[in-house]
Amino acid sequence: MQSETLPSTSRRQNVDRAHGTLGPGALRFAVAAFVLLAFCGHRDAVVAQPAGILANGNAVVTGFAGAQLPATIAPGVDPADRTFIDLNGPSARVVDLQAPGAPPQAQLLTTPKPFTATAGQTGQLFGVALDNATPPNVFVAATSVYGLPIVTPGSGGQLNRAKQGAANAAFMPGLFGPAQLGGGPGSIWRIDGVTGEVRLFANVALAGATNPGPALGGLAFDAASKTLFVADRATGMIHALDPAGNERGRYDHGVQGRDAAGLQPVPYDPAGRLDIASPKFRTGDAATWGYANRQRLIFGLGVRNGRLYYAVAKDLQIWSVAIGPTFGADPRLEVSVAAGPGPSEISKIAFDDQGRMLLAERAAPSGAYDFNVLTSEATGRVLRYLPVPPGTAGPQWQSQADEYAIGFARQMRNGNGGVAIGFNYDEQGRVDRASCGQFLWSTGEQLRSAIDPAIAAMLAAGGPAEVNGVQGNDTTAVVPANAPPWQSYFIDYDDQFQDPAARGHLGDIAILRVCGQAGFNLPGWYRPRVELFPGYLWYRLHGKKPPLLDCPPGSGNQCACPPGTTQQPGFQCCPIGTYAGPNGQCISPCPDGSTDPGKLEACLQGFDPNSFDPNDLSKLTCLDGSKAVYDGNGYHCPTFKSPVCPVGFEPDPLGNFFGCKPTAQGKACPPTQWPTIPQPGLDGSCQQLCPSGSWAYAAYQCCPNGMLPGPDGKCGQPLQPGCPPGQLSSKGICCPVGSKPQPDGSCYPMKKPCPPEQLSSSGQCCPPGSKPQPDGSCGTQQNACPPGQLSSTGQCCPLGSKPQPDGGCKPQLDKGCKVEQLTPNGTCCPAGTKPQNDNTCGSLAGCPPGTTTDPLTGECCPGASAVAGVKAACTCPTGQSLVEGKCVVNAAPSTGACFAGYVQLPNGSCCRAGQATAGGQCCPAGQKPDAEKRKCVPAGGTTFVPATPHLPAPIIVPGKRGRIVTPPPRRPPVVVVPAPPKRVVPPKRFTPRPVIRPAPVPPRIRRQIEQ
Predict the structure, then answer these.
(1) The whole model's pTM is what?
(2) At 633, which helix (H) or strand (E)?
(3) Rounded to a whole number, what is the largest CA-CA distance in the chain?
(4) Which label site among 126, 352, 596, 627 has the fewest CB atoms less than 10 Å from its CB?
(5) Interior angle at CA 952, CA 951 and CA 957, nearest 5
(6) pLDDT tens digits for 666-709?
(7) Closest C-alpha to 546, from 509, 518, 571, 511
(8) How many angstroms separate the CA atoms of 661 and 667, rounded?
């Protein structure tokens, strides 16, 4: 088989030899190349953990705590002016990942959140890390990624919001932790792993100067040195803290890192320090927030093999430095990430057990005044880099990153900057701790929203669309696999599903993993184990064993079909790397019948995986019983030769892989989306004969009388004796002469040559009555063009435009109409709208994806809500207000009127539309109108309530006697739990590799903390 069909098992493999090889540079990883996936221990082979707030396998997730809109407000007052951070909203939550209850099928999981830290306790948070205590303590860091809102004193003790710095300005309450506890922009908070107590751990400072507002970036914990690392967004420094919160060391990339690389140093400039009292500070412009120079600005952190990895904003670079014995030694550039669609930073660095580097990207903050769109959309990628094999010179990571599909809309780049590794799940959706970390969880926005109506309808069966939370999928599911992410789990952060405008509301994620281990894990550079056989077992794909054919391959057709059927050609599907045996079973090349991907890969190279001894490679033997031969290029064995080849292949004794090579028909069907392999069908056309991860072998089957197989080998095509050969489609249609059967069963007229004069520059054949245009399109004939509309290049200018001297067309200016308000056909769009390509006038701001524009009002209306009893609300686009029933750009409501989303009550005040009763009463926070809008009732599920409320300890305010202030009580725990989601079977699924459960072995305990 050719290398473009199946990649080699190592970049060092000599593809010109017909032998498997183990090079000396890979000796320390020899176990990875052969047997290494097995023996991770049984699910129950785990040391019991003391009770605490974070169970083994659960996650800690950070996010924006939310904001509270005023229920009532005076006419003419913008509700955003009275919108403040919700002090009772969740800033960090523990999310239960133990038992989804079913395989991942894009369903929403209504999982428990057993612990919540509120904005009143910690302020807003992003970075999160776990230490190696038992149970672990949780560390969370202050952040500015959700904005830097400020307030000024108002009359009557009220606070007024401000958009620009002022002498008496202060940060909005809830942005940072309580000042009376020492909280501020540089605060790191410690959540006790046993009791859940929240206390200040450290305040990051430089030369005695505290952080003025840009706050902190990522956190990372090194278990070996018991050091917590944190990035200071104001100075660009990375601080190393000991278990008591004292500074153990400091690293300056702008000076130390750049100088070591021969770059011009960029030292910290205190002149750029943020001052919210200065009018230069603007809450809606992150460029005024006092971040460090991008050449020294650090965000994401990660620890691996005694080195600290960190992300630099400039050019999205990943660097690393030694942690010990001297922190900051040996700085080196690891990789530069290709720029995405918008301004962003790498906000999280994580590593899986194979050493592959995972990066989460977060879009730049917007500073949205209304707390809705906190970042730009379609900018949050989750990337993966594989390390190169040991001993390779030059770059140590693959040149182009793999990418995961996050969410369904907006190019599937809906990440919010957090990523972590967790346990895998078995076929029943139960956590499998023997997997030791094969599942990827990412934070993201609008994860189940889809623009395609067909996809949206399928997703609706599995829960609401507006999910801002986390997505979970197999670590091997990089694009094109699992794109769209049908085989994923989704969990909402705050259990609110009525926020279609929310963007950038999620933060980071950390997962506790403590698992029993014996044996080894494959190194990250060993790509074939995870990329060659995804969706490997038929059982994993179909939930049952592969079917036995009536006349299996190799039977010599010596089998009888039952009465009422006739013997017909067909196909037998087997997982890639196995072959079809004479009894209809799919046979492994390994003598013991193993289908473990690691062992299977070794057997395909001719090695007996059971002969591997990591301390003595000379014991390696080959499948034929001979000893592996060693030379300067490594160990060699004759590669496995299959006794039967898949469809589209033929025996090749000299072949490098499987003893097969593609036939002429096989070469005409190259794979376009691995591991889906098109193969020649019964009529020679290219067909997908088997599910992804499998290939077909020629076989026989018994079809009902009067039926015959189509090109894909499936019975169901009626016999038509009078149909000419090659004209019968797979649907049984006899295609007329001059047409040809298509793979989908239809008939399509055979193309006729295009007359030269009708062929456009873009290759399009223009139909009769039209003529190729200079821009490659097909236009009307010259004689059909109205007088005066034909340009010098032969283009017929549309009505409302005029030919220009350069041969182009330009809209005619209406008197008094600005050029930017003209549509292509010359229509002058009114103020508040903008010209569209289809010659219509659309909304200036435009409605977000997934919504429709009301043609009468211009409001953006979401699709039907997936939550029973909840009516979708329409709002004007960003920057517009509803005036006299129309959305108007940048226009405040007239005196005495209410802003969009509010209605005027008989008493003249403005009430949120969803809070007003028919009798003119405005329901207060925590209540809503009943179904008939007659009275106010408890809001129930529309109000956020933690699954198990965790009441914070009383706050002691320093003073002579220590006044005690008790935090406000939680809202009543009334939660509307949606019905269990229906199982969605998408048209195309990525199936992860199988869960292998070997015989139990005495485990060595390893603690693995993903940060």
Answers:
(1) 0.60
(2) none
(3) 104
(4) 627
(5) 145
(6) 888 887 666 678 899 988 888 888 887 788 888 877 777 667 78
(7) 571
(8) 9
